[in-house]
């Protein structure tokens, strides 16, 4: 079986990467593999998003078995990843990887070994699922750089961007839910610390998208794509069809979304923290931030993120709900690198 095509999804927290990956994974010939880089960091007894512990998951248990058959352990692989492709400051890691791989291969034996493992993971996922395209929503720019150096893997980068005010509001809501859950589980520990501020979430959005832009500029135009979350959920069939064409695929059937819902199958995402079982999911724009994000947070977020917001076509003063697109510059929803 030939090596699969791989789509590396870049983006920020609560920025639409999961919904993009899950929708894309429903196309014939595609498989959504979640955040693959977390495979090495998670306790194998913890559940995959399919509900089974990783070491019993019908997909990842077999992938791990194959990858570790040569004697390498998950702990070793996690160590290689932590040393060369850390989650923290991944934009710096991406620059370092570019420098290390300027000769077309990695001189550092750990980095070379890690790259080989990653290559085999994608190969095993494709073989076990029968997919031609593996969608990896790890979100980190340094993963995209690493893959660029693997000459026998045909890799594509899709950057998913969402209005930073929507992302910041979603991060706040998620933090509040987690805080409430922890406080219920251990009330004797006292109130949990406050969630991240809008400024924190926005700076994270900014650094992640600035790094993603930098990586995309290094790629040939036919390997790099920008998709807005808002366009994806407003015109899912158009966007999914365009992404499939971008990677050279032409699925026989696109899903029926006429009722505004999509039937999603079980997903296997390591350490997703959330079950992604088969479900009928409404496809609709989450615009709650327009009513629920405080004016102060909305102004602060826009002030910090304005250079990139403008680039992506997000207006300072959004129109009323569900008409975001009418005043935006990015009408197609898809932009190849200029
Ligand atoms: Zn699973």
How widely separated are the two ends?
34 Å
Structural class: alpha/beta
Count the DSSP helices: 12
Strand coverage percent: 5-15%
Bound ligands, each once: zinc ion
pLDDT < 50 runs, ≥5 residues: 323-333
N-to-C SSE string, H for helix and E for strand: EHEHHHHEHEHHEHHEEHHE
Q: What count of domains describes the coordinates?
A: 1
Architecture per CATH nomenclature, i.e. the level-2 architecture: 3-Layer(aba) Sandwich
Average predicted local confidence, pLDDT: 84
Q: Biggest sheet: strands side by side, in what order? A: 2-3-1-4-5-8
User: Helix amount, in percent?
Assistant: 40-55%
Biggest sheet features? 6 strands, mixed
Question: How would you describe the overall organization of this protein?
Answer:
With 338 residues, the protein is an alpha/beta fold. It has one domain (5-165, 208-285, 318-336): Rossmann fold (3-Layer(aba) Sandwich), CATH 3.40.50. The chain has helices at 17-25, 60-67, 74-84, 90-100, 109-129, 141-148, 164-185, 198-218, 229-234, 236-246, 289-292, 295-312; strands spanning 5-10, 30-32, 133-139, 154-161, 224-228, 261-264, 279-282, 334-336. Strands 2-3-1-4-5-8 form a six-stranded mixed sheet, sandwiched between helices. α4 runs parallel beside α6 (141-148) and α8 packs parallel to α12. The two termini are 34 Å apart. The model is unreliable at 323-333 (pLDDT under 50). Zinc ion binds at residues 48, 50, 52, 57, 59-60, 268.
């Amino acid at each position: 079986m030939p090596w699969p095509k791989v789509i590396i999804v870049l983006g920020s927290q609560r920025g639409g990467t999961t919904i993009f990956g899950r929708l894309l994974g429903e196309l014939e010939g595609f498989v959504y593999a979640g955040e693959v880089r977390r495979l090495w960091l998670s306790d194998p007894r913890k559940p995959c998003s399919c509900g089974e512990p990783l070491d019993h998951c019908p997909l990842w248990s077999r992938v791990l078995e194959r990858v570790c058959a040569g004697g390498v352990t998950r702990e070793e692989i996690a160590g290689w990843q932590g040393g060369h492709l850390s989650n923290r400051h991944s934009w710096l890691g991406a620059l370092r990887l570019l420098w290390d791989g300027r000769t077309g291969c990695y001189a550092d034996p750990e980095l070379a070994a890690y790259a080989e493992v990653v290559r085999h993971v994608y190969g095993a996922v494709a073989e076990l699922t029968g997919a031609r395209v593996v969608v990896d929503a790890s979100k980190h720019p340094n993963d995209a750089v690493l893959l660029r150096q693997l000459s026998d893997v045909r890799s594509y980068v899709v950057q998913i961007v969402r209005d930073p005010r929507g992302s910041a509001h979603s991060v706040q809501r998620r933090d509040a839910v987690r805080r409430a859950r922890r406080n219920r589980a251990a009330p004797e520990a006292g109130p949990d610390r406050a969630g991240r501020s809008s400024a924190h979430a926005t700076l994270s959005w900014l650094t992640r998208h600035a790094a993603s832009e930098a990586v995309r500029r290094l790629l040939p135009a036919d390997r790099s794509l920008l998709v807005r979350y808002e366009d994806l959920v407003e015109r899912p069939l158009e966007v999914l069809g365009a992404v499939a064409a971008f990677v050279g695929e032409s699925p026989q059937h696109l899903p029926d979304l006429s009722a505004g819902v999509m039937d999603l199958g079980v997903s296997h995402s390591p350490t997703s923290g959330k079950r992604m079982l088969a479900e009928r999911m409404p496809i609709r724009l989450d615009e709650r931030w327009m009513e629920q994000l405080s004016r102060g947070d909305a102004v602060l977020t826009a002030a910090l993120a304005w250079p990139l917001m403008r680039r992506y076509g997000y207006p300072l003063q959004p129109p009323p709900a569900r008409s975001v697109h009418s005043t935006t510059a990015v009408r197609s929803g898809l932009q190849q690198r200029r």
